[in-house]
């Protein structure tokens, strides 16, 4: 207990929960947890079902909004902040405001800390107010944390000081804020940066490089047409603890459907055929009883492109986050029929995305423009098509019009100025794909009502979504009111008369809206070139459509090979895979997970048993069947007749039965899925009673082991349910080939928790790609682990491993196997120097 005179910690009173993602790894969470705990914060554990304890949280730290309880957090007004909030809080020794550190991309000025220089007072107030409303923060003076200075020239002392002391600070014209507000999107600052802003020295009709469109990666079509090439092999964890229903209206054949089912099941998910039982519903169209019921109940409803995105990126995302991840309207959006739309100044994925979005909306896309076209969607007010559209009186708008119309399920009016705004030196392709669905409009149009048949859980989900949508203040300001805001822009229509120094353009700085409509010159890319290029890309993509699932299926098969065959190698054996698949398709049911090889040779019996088991139990450390095959066979039959299925440890299970907490491969592998853990006495009791007994009466109690491992069993289960097999997600773990107890068991445990596992032999093959601190953004090196025993042959590999890690800008940690076993048991990534091999073997000599 703290003394009376002891000062309270900086974060006293803060209860913080960390959400793991690829941008906030378990290693980073471990480091941040130590820091905030040191300063008095309370670290929250997940609830029993693996959820965020919202009723106790004061802050949720996440670098993305792609986690399932984000809407619940908005409903309860719990601030969600990115990890920079912790860094700034500790750097300033003062709890930072939460608004500037929102991970929501709709907060377009998030992470902007602004100070103004020589800006008129009225314009200054407007700029600061708009910035703060959209996630930014004002700084009266220039500090080390200041990210932007709004100025008209470099003469002000703040600008001169920034050049000397804070070179990362961006000095921008007020035009940048004006254009961002008009569009409701954050565009690049580059053309607006002093001392030589491009918007003043370069004509608006000069060429601009078409920017990449990262926001639409994996979401350019409702039917996935390509798979990302080979990535670092990692366990698919996105479907862990999820029940997925794949609708019959998807345009896929039986073979691909079976592959997708296998992928979901191999990633600890479950494929179901009951819409009421599923968590995720995948379909093609926004109609039908199943779609309506799934949507009304608040299930995650997405299309095939969304399912592929989850598989490829291995990270959950809301299907309404990207427009072409949600089922399409069968007959398009009302009002689009008869429209003929063409594109200009978009390229690559952005162009393919817009082509498919136009078609999904119900309009007709044309490659070239003719007099009968009704609309031109362009990324710049420049080029031959724009000139022709003006002559033929064809409506010219940017892509925000088609995106908003699709998101709001109705044609938007052209009178909104944001649809006709084109910043002079910006290609709007850089902000494509950043529009979210209006979920309330989706419900009103496609699945209204349903309250009378909703379950309590569904009503709670709907209430959370409605409350969250009301709390998304960004859409109210940056999108709905963008047109109004632009009429009274930060410059207020009163342009400054003092031009920036060092520019060749001697005209006064003017509001960009007054200078962007007059364009000259040729278009960057002619329609024929762009159409040919995009068509060629789509043809190549289509040829790769079916490569993703077979490749992953092959990988799953290959990684089961023993160490003597090579950890990642072996022959490709395509003919064997085909034979295995044919055998599965001819079998009445999927693998029921029986442990006995004799029973696995009888698919007919297994099919009948596994069709609808009431309870799936993974059993470890069970003594009753040791050396007694006859009793085991009889007991298994009796259990199956009661609806209890004893499954292998590599398939999903409802319960893990064990005599105590043990650090065995089977126990730790199953624990990573977060099942309920019961005593193995339960199996004996059911057999002897001849009926299914209540599992809650046989929950495993093992206080002695809990004290030894330093974690309660229920805490470990709760953490596992929150981790969903991602405890060691992306963490590289190497293992010596001659480690005690063999490589296979450690590989199984590591991969069950999402680690990248390799065997280290000290020669070519097992290497880390070298990087530099600059390439890693100046962040401290990530740790990389080597599991080892104390044999002389293994010790000889230690210097080679350290050299490899340091060349790859990583921190080498050579540890004993107990580190992995304890981490897997606690379901928490921590590190203590006592696990280091040098120290451990010095304190515990092997001989």
Automatic annotation (TrEMBL):
Source domain of life: Eukaryota
- One Pfam family this chain carries? RTT107_BRCT_5
What's in the GO CC field? Answer: Cul8-RING ubiquitin ligase complex; nucleus
Which Gene Ontology terms describe the biological processes this protein takes part in?
DNA double-strand break attachment to nuclear envelope; double-strand break repair
Which residue stretches does the UniProt record annotate as biased composition, category Polar residues?
Answer: 502-518, 526-535
User: Where does the BRCT domain lie?
Assistant: 6-103, 104-194, 336-408, 615-700
Q: Where is the composition biased (Basic and acidic residues)?
A: 572-584
Q: Where is this region: Disordered?
A: 481-542, 556-612
SUPFAM superfamilies, per the entry: BRCT domain (SSF52113)
Q: What is this protein called?
A: BRCT domain-containing protein
């Amino acid at each position: 207990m703290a003394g009376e005179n002891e000062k309270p910690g900086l974060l006293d009173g803060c209860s913080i929960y960390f959400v793991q993602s690829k941008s906030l790894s378990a290693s980073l969470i471990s480091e941040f947890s130590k820091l905030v705990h040191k300063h008095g914060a309370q670290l929250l554990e997940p609830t029993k079902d693996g959820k965020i304890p919202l009723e106790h949280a004061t802050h949720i730290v996440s670098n993305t909004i792609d986690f399932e309880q984000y809407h619940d957090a908005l409903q309860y007004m719990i601030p969600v902040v990115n990890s920079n909030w912790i860094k700034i809080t500790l750097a300033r020794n003062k709890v930072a405001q939460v608004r500037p550190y929102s991970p929501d991309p709709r907060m377009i000025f998030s992470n902007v800390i602004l100070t103004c220089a020589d800006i008129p007072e009225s314009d200054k107030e407007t700029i600061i107010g708009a910035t703060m409303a959209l996630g930014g923060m004002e700084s009266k003076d220039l500090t080390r944390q200041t990210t932007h200075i709004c100025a008209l020239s470099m003469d002000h002392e703040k600008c001169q000081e920034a050049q000397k002391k804070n070179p990362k600070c961006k000095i921008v014209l007020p035009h940048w804020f004006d254009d961002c507000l008009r569009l409701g999107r954050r565009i690049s600052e580059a053309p607006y940066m002093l001392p030589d802003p491009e918007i003043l020295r370069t004509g608006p009709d000069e060429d601009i490089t078409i920017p990449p469109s990262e926001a639409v990666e994996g979401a350019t079509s409702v039917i996935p047409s390509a798979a990302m090439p080979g990535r670092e092999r990692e366990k698919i964890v996105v479907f862990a603890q999820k029940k997925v229903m794949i609708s019959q209206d998807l345009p896929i054949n039986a073979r691909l459907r079976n592959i997708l089912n296998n992928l979901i099941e191999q990633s600890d998910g479950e494929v179901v055929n009951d819409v009421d039982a599923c968590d995720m519903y995948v379909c093609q169209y926004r109609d039908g009883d199943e779609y309506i019921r799934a949507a009304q109940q608040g299930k995650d409803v997405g299309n095939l492109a969304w399912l592929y995105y989850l598989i490829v990126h291995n990270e959950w995302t809301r299907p309404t986050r990207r427009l072409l991840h949600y089922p399409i309207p069968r007959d398009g959006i009302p009002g689009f029929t008869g429209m003929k739309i063409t594109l200009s100044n978009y390229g690559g994925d952005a162009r393919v995305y817009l082509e498919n979005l136009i078609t999904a909306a119900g309009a007709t896309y044309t490659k070239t423009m003719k007099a009968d076209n009704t609309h031109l969607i362009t990324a710049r007010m420049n080029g031959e098509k724009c000139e022709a559209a003006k002559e033929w009186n064809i409506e010219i708008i940017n892509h925000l019009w088609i995106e908003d119309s699709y998101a709001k399920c109705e044609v938007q009016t052209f009178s909104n100025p944001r649809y006709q705004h084109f910043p002079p030196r910006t290609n709007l392709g850089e902000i494509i794909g950043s529009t979210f669905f209006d979920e309330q409009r989706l419900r009103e149009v496609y699945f209204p009502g349903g309250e009378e048949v909703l379950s309590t859980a569904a009503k709670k989900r709907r209430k959370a979504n409605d409350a969250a949508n009301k709390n998304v203040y960004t859409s109210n300001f940056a999108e709905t009111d963008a047109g109004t805001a632009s009429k009274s822009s930060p410059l207020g229509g009163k342009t400054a008369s003092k031009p920036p120094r060092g520019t060749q353009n001697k005209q006064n700085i003017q509001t960009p809206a007054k200078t962007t409509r007059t364009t000259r010159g040729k278009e960057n890319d002619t329609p024929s070139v762009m159409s040919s290029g995009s068509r060629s890309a789509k043809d190549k993509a289509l040829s790769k459509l079916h490569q993703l699932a077979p490749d992953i299926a092959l990988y799953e098969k290959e990684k089961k090979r023993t160490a003597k065959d090579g950890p990642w190698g072996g022959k490709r054996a395509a003919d064997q895979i085909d034979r295995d698949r044919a055998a599965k398709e001819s079998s009445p049911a999927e693998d029921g997970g029986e442990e006995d090889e004799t029973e696995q040779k009888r698919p007919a019996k297994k099919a009948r048993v596994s069709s609808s088991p009431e309870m799936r139990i993974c059993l470890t450390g069970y003594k009753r069947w040791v050396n007694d095959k006859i009793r085991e066979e009889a007991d298994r039959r009796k259990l199956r007749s009661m609806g209890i299925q004893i499954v292998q440890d590599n398939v999903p299970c409802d319960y893990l039965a064990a005599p105590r907490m043990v650090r065995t491969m089977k126990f730790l592998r199953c624990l990573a899925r977060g099942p309920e853990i019961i005593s193995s006495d339960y199996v004996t009791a059911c057999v002897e009673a001849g009926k299914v007994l209540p599992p809650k009466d046989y929950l495993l109690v093992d206080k002695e082991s809990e004290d030894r491992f330093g974690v309660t069993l229920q805490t470990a289960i709760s953490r596992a349910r929150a981790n969903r097999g991602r405890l060691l997600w992306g963490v590289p773990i190497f293992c010596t080939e001659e480690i005690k107890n063999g490589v296979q068991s450690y590989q199984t445990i590591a991969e069950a928790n999402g680690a990248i596992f390799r065997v280290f032999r000290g020669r070519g093959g097992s290497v880390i790609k070298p990087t530099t601190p600059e390439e890693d953004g100046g962040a401290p090196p990530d740790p990389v682990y080597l599991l080892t025993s104390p044999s002389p042959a293994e010790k000889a590999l230690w210097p080679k491993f350290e050299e490899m890690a340091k060349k790859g800008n990583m921190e080498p940690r050579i540890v004993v196997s107990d580190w992995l076993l304890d981490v897997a048991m606690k379901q928490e990534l921590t590190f203590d120097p006592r696990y280091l091999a040098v120290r451990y073997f010095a304190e515990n000599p092997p001989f």
